[in-house]
Amino acid sequence: MKILHTSDWHLGQSFMGKSRQEEHQSFLTWMIETIENQSIDTLIVAGDIFDTATPPNYALELYYNFLTKLSFTCKNIIITAGNHDSIATLKAPKQLLKALNIHVVASGDESENEVIGIYSDDTLEGIVCAIPFLRDYVVRQSASAQTINDKEYSLTQGIKKHYESVYKDALKLANDKNIPIIATGHLTTVGSKTSESEREIYIGGTLDIDSDFLGKYFNYVALGHLHINQKVGCEHVRYSGSPIPLSFSEFSSQKKVNIVEFKNKTMSVTELDIPLYRPLLVLRGDVTSILKELEDVEDKRTWIEVHLSDENPFHANQVIREKAEELELTLLAVKIDKTEKALHAEDFDIISLDELNPIDVFERRLEKDALEDEAFVKELVTNFKKIVNEVQNS
Length: 394
Description:
single chain; 17 strands; 33% helix
């Protein structure tokens, strides 16, 4: 059994006002070719297929075209929802996709079967516990919990019990056969590495779930939500990461998918590099050094962010933008670094709201108020995160 594990496509993402359609199309085309060339029989997508609950039409078209083409070459396709995905959007074509042997698990509630058998010529070769992002209402253990800590503890226990329950159902299907049991998940585990672009999920963003818990039940755990490809604690608990850099901070890490091969229960994992379609470039310095570096950019598809430290930042900003236009380069943002030379410009930091999530905006607003009570500030941020979580998951 040969599995390709991927996640966090974020189809439909608008990055600082720019569409990622070309990059996603390039990735999906590469995926179809890779699955065929690598003789992959099972594709697992571990959440965040779309960037928002209401993806643009072109993103839906990319998704359905990909699945239609892939259904001819890949025997088993398993898709689980992430925190960005709309349950209704993923569920709508569920029965139609099932006819193509494409399994979609959107919520993990009682109406969905999360135990999926992987068959070859009617022989059961493996089992996937297709567990999506688990919303609070699915796994809530106690309606009486009042404090944030109580709710986080209750949520953690509920998620753990959900995994244990689905694993028990998988054991029934396995019926003592020596076959691997794989799980999916969309969450942040203890000890994992994050980047700037992931939205915190769950209440306060904290879950006491680690690789020891997940690893003791399953032969491989295909995780999503974090955008860096990584293993967590042990060889068989892994994030695939996002297929394209979703922020400038992610560009330094090579994007990958995980190819997981089982011979009985013996597992091997290959991290396969994804070809880069569009470079993201961060330039830092004064106007002279920035202009020189712009001249050196060869790939015209590059998107550029400038961090400017200059004695006359406003004039420098104008000169840099004119130069980028002359070179037919795409300059997405110019930020004024708050160095000693540019302190007079501190109230004019050039930044796009597309770079900030709601929590960033809230924390920046609190910084301006300069509140002295740290405990009060922490409580405000925690409560705001709870509100954002409820809005995003409603």
